[in-house]
Design goal:
This protein has 352 residues and is an alpha/beta fold. The protein has one domain: 3-Layer(aba) Sandwich (Rossmann fold). The chain is built from 11 helices and 7 strands. The strands form 2 sheets. Strands 1-2-3-7-6 form a 5-stranded parallel β-sheet, with helices on both faces. β2, α7 (164-176) and β3 form a beta-alpha-beta unit. The chain is globular. It binds thiamine diphosphate and magnesium ion. The site of thiamine diphosphate has 15 residues, from β2 and β4.
């Protein structure tokens, strides 16, 4: 039989076998941590969980195209897999959800799902949806002013794409050709509101033309397509050609959060069909077909991850709780006299 010179897709993209196995492992790990935290929430250990299940393929692939320790990320509450690909480990994530005193994200001050940490170049996120997109543009502007070789990525949902901040941020980035990658993870719902009720015309990427940047649509279940789109956006940003908007079509496999029940607004058939678009089995099948992943390797990886998550959650649970005295730390520049009574602001003369 004639020898074929068709190389697997990942090699065409410059990714090694180790790279794609590493991506697959990051996806499995993020899923395992996410699932563990649902259990901990249901057991009353974690107050609230907002899941990234179904988004892992897009998130790992896109973050893989960024340079760890050099580039920056302004995430949103579903960014667990991205945050982990950027360097946060299972224990960091679980510790944050348990609001422990030494949580790297915020010392237990933020809500669960609010990832961040200076050591990882991940900006602490704000709860009002969309504000992180302005932060990303600010970071990109700062890097450009300083002449630093830094690209910033930010992520948000399609419902959030309708917030005023998104227009301001994208317009500013388009005018100044800033090195930023806008990632819209379109999972078809904003809590219970379906896409056709939130996005006029149903395309977020189509809006890019108004901001003088490319608008790229990718299947969030196609890990390598997500990587390729982000790599291209990253190269473009580094060449000084400005921002890119990527819209990744993903699935939200869980309810919006642990306070929601999607059975109240999604048909059972729709929910059952989501599993076919789960990025994990899709990527596993592709890696098997490329001869990179074997059943044995898959099983070993999954077993390692299971024990890693068991250990990480045990260690996270054993960490110290914050004390009431800690509450003012990192909030005010100086300790408050008397240990906690806030000093009222002086009245403003001639106020209106
Ligand atoms: C400014 C603001 N309005 C409303 C909310 C409440 N809220 C939290 S998540 C969410 C839905 C966002 O949907 P989408 O952007 O599609 O992201 P998804 O949750 O689907 O990933 C809303 C309305 C908020 N946090 N901030
Ligand atoms: Mg959504």
């Amino acid at each position: 039989m004639a020898q074929t010179d068709i190389r697997p897709r990942h090699q065409e993209l410059g990714l090694s076998d180790d790279d794609v196995l590493g991506m697959y492992r990051d996806m499995l790990l993020a899923r395992a941590v996410d699932e563990r935290m649902w259990l901990m929430q249901r057991a009353g250990k974690i107050a609230f969980i907002i899941s990234g299940q179904g988004h892992e393929g897009a998130q790992v692939a896109m973050s893989w195209a960024m340079r760890k320790g050099q580039d920056w990320m302004a995430p949103y509450y579903r960014s667990i897999a991205s945050a982990m690909t950027f360097g946060m480990d299972a224990e960091d994530i679980i510790t944050a959800h348990l609001a422990k005193a030494d949580d790297v994200s915020s010392g237990g001050r933020q809500m669960p799902g609010h990832y961040g940490g200076a050591p990882y170049n991940i900006v602490s996120l704000s709860s009002p949806v969309g504000t992180q997109v302005l932060h990303a543009v600010g970071i990109a502007m700062g890097a450009w002013v300083r002449g630093d070789d830094v690209v910033t990525m930010t992520q948000f949902g399609e419902g959030t794409s309708n917030q005023g901040e998104i227009h301001e941020a994208m317009n500013f980035a388009g005018v100044h050709k800033l090195p930023v990658i806008f990632v819209c993870e379109n999972n078809g719902y904003a809590i219970s509101v379906p896409l056709d009720q939130q996005v006029a015309g149903s395309s977020v990427a189509a809006r890019a033309v108004g901001y003088d940047m490319p608008g790229v649509v990718v299947d969030g279940g196609d890990v390598l397509a997500c990587y390729a789109a982000t790599k291209e956006a990253h190269d473009r940003a580094r060449r000084g050609e400005g921002p890119t908007l990527i819209e990744a079509h993903v699935v939200r496999l869980t309810s919006h959060s642990s306070d929601d029940d999607q059975r109240r607004y999604r048909d059972p058939e729709e929910v059952a069909a989501l599993k076919e678009r789960d990025p994990i089995p899709q990527f596993a099948a592709e890696l098997r077909a490329a001869g990179v992943l074997t059943d044995e390797r898959d099983e070993t990886m999954r077993a390692e991850i299971k024990s890693l998550v068991n250990e990480a959650s045990k260690r996270a649970e054993a960490r110290p709780e914050p004390t009431p005295e800690d509450a003012h730390e990192r909030v005010y520049a100086e300790p408050i006299p008397g240990g906690g009574t806030a000093v009222p602001l002086a009245p403003i003369d001639g106020g209106h």
